[in-house]
Amino acid sequence: MAGTPLFAEKILFSANRMTGQAGNSNTTTSLSGNAYIKTETMEIQADEVELSGDNYRYIKASGNISGKNTKTNMDFTCDSLEYDRTTKIALLKGNVKLDDKDNDVKAESQIIEYNQDTEIAILQIQIKLTQKDNVCSGSYAIYYKTNQLLELSGNAQVKQKDDVFRAQNITLDMNTQDITLGGNVKGKVTETKEAEEEKPAENQGENQPETEADSQPGTEVQTEEEAADGQ
Predict the structure, then answer these.
(1) Burial, 51: exposed, middle or buried (Cβ in 10 Å; 0-12, 13-18, 19+)?
(2) CA torsion sign, 152 to 156 to 162 to 163?
(3) DSSP 14-32
(4) What is the rounded distance in angstroms from the CA atom of residue 187 to the CA atom of residue 215?
């Protein structure tokens, strides 16, 4: 290629049709029809792809996008994508689905910005994230893949089977399943009856009562004030 490469990462691409100057890193190259891009850490398939910037630094894709980050083992689909090969930041928009295969975490949102180096994803609008028994939703969220931590805000809610927790802000530790709630805290938990065998047979099998509470058995739940006091 003409000029001096800014980094050693290779980029491979294929498509049914290409416009632009192959090998000239200072022009825009457009790929259409079964476009495929592969870098050392990303694979992208789409209807249309545009490469631009020095040494094809910027990648823009649209139409039936699917791909994977081979470094962090994350698969994704979306309507449009922008990826900066230097900063390693990907911006996914429109019906975004992100699958963290290492931790069995699945996220859906209208916008997700993912930083490959920090392994942090910022989710916005119509968020739904599932992990184990957790179904999480809100208007804004930050997912820390390395630490397995989720921060939710804006009508934040976490469901754990029959238990529901709502607050302005929720932090979920996905390793320990501990929850910290802050602002207009509400919760509904289902009690587990103990010593069922000691109860009369006619009472067996009845529906378990539901109670309003701020915590559930087996899961630590804190408010932001308690967390600040170190409790």
Answers:
(1) buried
(2) positive
(3) E-SEEES-TT-TTS-EEEE
(4) 7
Q: Say if CB 38 and CB 13 are below 8 A apart.
A: yes
Q: How far apart are CA 8 and CA 136, in angstroms?
A: 40
Separation of CA 182 from chain center: 22
Specify the DSSP element, H or E, that contains 185: none
Q: What are phi and psi of 94, to 5 degrees?
A: 80, 105
Over 50: is that where the pLDDT of 85 sits? Answer: yes
Q: Which two tokens stand for residue 150?
A: 């989720």
Q: What is the mean pLDDT of residues 77-87?
A: 96
Structure tokens at 23: 């090998």
60, two tokens: 């823009």
Q: Can you give the length of the chain in residues?
A: 231
Which residue is it, tokens 């992100």? 98
Q: What is the pTM of this model?
A: 0.77
pLDDT value, residue 86: 93
In this prediction, residue 129 carries a pLDDT of 97
What is the C-alpha separation between 50 and 137, in angstroms, rounded?
33
pLDDT tens for 189-218 read 877 655 444 455 455 545 544 444 444 444
Per-residue pLDDT of 107-124, as tens digits, reads 999 999 999 999 999 999
**Triad 98, 101, 104: Cα angle to 5°:** 90
Q: Which residues contact 62 (CB under 8 A, 6 or more apart)?
A: 46, 47, 48, 79, 80, 81
